[in-house]
Amino acid sequence: MQKPILLGIIGGSGSGKTWLAQHVLESFGPEKATLLEQDWYYRDLSHLPVEIAARSDFDTPDALELDLLENHLIELLEGKGVKAPQYDFSRFSRKKDTLSIEPRPLIVVEGLFILHQPTLAQRLDLSVFVETPCDMRLLRRIRRDLSERGYDLDTVLDFWERIQYPGFTKYVRPQAQKASLIWDSLQDSSFVPAFLADLQNRITRNAAKSTS
C-alpha cells in the first residue's frame, strides 16, 4: 500500500487556510486527496446553556480533542477509514452524524493548531503557515460568522477582541517558526501554482516507491 503524504495547513482565523486546503482538494480530486478539518474536533458543549457555551474560549488548543484528530490521522496513514465528527457552531455541540473519510495518497489536515501538538506535528510530511494581515482576517471572520454561523456583529467583535486575537498571538503565530513553508497570501501570487506542482511531484515519487 502506498503510504499517504500528510500535509498540514495552519494559519489564523480568516487567513485563507481553508481556501488553500479546498484548492488542493479540487486540484487533485477525490481519488487522490482527502481532508480532515481541525474544526470538526471541537469539544461538545451541549451540556452547557448556549449563552454560557458561547463565551467559551475556542481559540485555545484545550478547546479541541487534538488526540482524537491525531488518532484519526494515524488510522488513515495505516490505510483505515475513519468516522470524523461534525460540529454545529450555532449550538456549540457535536452533530449526531459523522463523516466517513477514506485514506488517499494525499491527506490534508488544516486548522489553527496543527503544529501545536508535537506528536501530531512530527507526523506531517509538509506544512504551510498562511500569513495574512490582521485587518483582512477580521473582515473575513465577520463575513463568515454572520453568513454561515448565525452570529451577530457584536458577538463576532467581542470574540475577536477578547479571545481570538490573544489566542492567535499566544498559540497560532508561534507555529510559523515550525512550518516547512510560509505563504504571504496577499503578496505571493506565485506560491500556489508552485506548491501544487511540488505536491504533484511528491505524490508521483511516492507512488513510484510503492511499486518498486
UniProtKB/TrEMBL annotation:
SUPFAM superfamilies for the chain: P-loop containing nucleoside triphosphate hydrolases
Domain Phosphoribulokinase/uridine kinase: 7-188
Keyword annotations from UniProtKB, A to Z: Kinase, Transferase
Documented EC number(s): 2.7.1.48
Record bears the keyword Transcription: no
Transmembrane regions: none
Example of a GO MF term: ATP binding
Protein name, as recorded: Uridine kinase
Protein source organism: Pelagicoccus albus
